[in-house]
Specification:
By secondary structure, the protein is of the alpha/beta class. The chain has a domain of about 270 residues: Glycosidases (TIM Barrel, Alpha-Beta Barrel), CATH 3.20.20. The strands form four sheets. Strands 1-2-4-5-6-9-10-17 form an eight-stranded parallel barrel, surrounded by seven helices. Strands 11, 12, 13, 14, 15 and 16 form a six-stranded antiparallel sheet that branches. The longest helix has 25 residues. It holds the Pfam family Glyco_hydro_18.
Length: about 400
């Protein structure tokens, strides 16, 4: 083979690897987990570009990644199942999750040998189960040392993924992570430089800001904007960018669930209304599907607040804050207009006849094509929340 031909083939391979790992098209993502009771076979994968299968577990003794026996069958068939409807959808194996023991991850990341065990086993499992990538969901590093070790872990993980791709001749596995909504976590700072260099993107968990088990007043748990400046999805995104993570490596998280508060007074049912705990189990958490059923069964009024970008409904002493199609549309448009890589949902099984997923896809495509535009009408009167709202419709 002539040297020029070899050089051309090498260039094409490197281009393919870079394209696979660092030249991502838009991400329209969603997480799925078997404990949701929603079968993977029911996922409309045509609405997504990437689907995350959650969660693989980390063995505290061996520091190896594995699939629990109860999930083995569904995980092994996940890629084949979702690609039967959409052959181009990519699947990623997510590791950890909110229920995982954070100290196990901290211990693993603290030593070179245990990091290698984690990395090598994660690659091996991803390939064996047919995934296109790996997703780290460590909730959350607790010390400055944890953050430093996280940065080292990502550097070594990226190098191992690249080495495996070269030796196997396959496209490099995608590497992503689900992180806190902001790079600043309890006075700690995520290793932004390592994140920007080594991850294909970050799934920014822009939700769970408030919940009724801690806060004695109603509020949005996933507001895009907050005029008070306390916490919001947009402030978190801006902080990530200011920390040095490219907008093109940020994916905005959107919850397909809400929280139900128990009102102190049924006649005071706006934002920041006094409440005395969750209205229901699981800290008041309700899937979008459950919320739509609640609205229908109780003829509950629905309010969209365009200042914060959120919805709420109420009936009796139950108040539920959540994202409906208006909020989803505005959030997706924000992500596109700010140059973000895309959006993701937690979780796909919580949707209601794919209303939110379809709205998200349509809003993103409208922004891309330029065929859509936004008309705005302001409600001059104050609503029950006392906040001026701006209604935004996709037309």
């Amino acid at each position: 083979m002539a040297p020029s031909t070899k050089l051309l083939l090498l260039s094409l391979y490197l281009l393919q690897s870079l394209s696979a790992s660092f030249g991502q098209d838009a991400v329209k993502g969603g997480y799925w987990f078997p404990e949701s009771g929603f079968p993977a076979s029911s996922i409309d994968s045509t609405l997504f570009t990437h689907l995350f299968c959650a969660f693989a577990v980390l063995n505290p003794q061996t520091n190896q990644v594995s699939i629990s026996p109860s999930n083995n069958a569904s995980f092994s068939q996940f890629t084949k199942t979702v690609q039967s409807k959409n052959p181009s959808v990519k699947t990623l194996l997510s590791i950890g999750g909110g229920g995982a023991n954070r100290t196990v991850f901290a211990s693993m990341a603290s030593q070179s040998a245990s990091r290698k065990s984690f990395i090598d086993s994660s690659i091996r499992v991803a390939r064996a189960y047919g995934f296109s990538g790996l997703d780290l969901d460590w909730e959350y590093p607790q010390t400055a040392g944890d953050m430093t070790n996280l940065g080292t872990l990502l550097t070594e993980w990226r190098a191992a993924v690249a080495t495996e791709a070269r030796s196997s001749g396959r496209a490099a596995l995608l590497l992503t992570a689900a992180f806190y909504f902001s790079p600043n976590l309890n006075e700690l700072k995520y290793p932004a430089q390592s994140i920007n260099t080594n991850l294909d993107w970050v799934n920014v968990m822009a939700y769970d800001f408030y919940d009724p088990s801690w806060y004695k007043f109603t509020n949005s748990h996933s507001m895009l904007y907050d005029p008070s400046g306390r916490v919001s999805g947009s402030s978190g995104i801006q902080a990530w960018i200011q920390a040095g993570v490219s907008a093109k490596k940020l994916v905005l998280g959107m919850p397909f669930y809400g929280y139900a508060w128990r009102l102190v007074n049924a006649n005071n049912h706006g934002l920041l209304a006094p409440a005395n705990g969750p209205a229901g189990p699981d800290n008041g958490a309700m899937t979008y599907n459950q919320i739509r059923n609640f609205i229908a069964q109780n003829n509950a009024p629905v309010v969209y607040n365009g200042t914060l970008v959120m919805n709420y409904c109420y009936a009796g002493t139950t108040w539920i804050g959540y994202d409906d199609t208006q909020a989803i549309s505005t959030k997706v448009s924000y992500a596109k207009q700010k140059g973000l890589l895309g959006y993701f949902a937690w979780h796909v099984g919580a949707d209601n006849n794919w209303a939110l997923s379809q709205q998200a896809q349509q809003s993103w495509e409208a922004e891309i094509s330029g065929t859509g535009h936004y008309s705005r009408s302001r409600r001059i009167k104050n609503g029950p929340d006392g906040v001026l709202s701006e209604m935004i419709y996709l037309v």
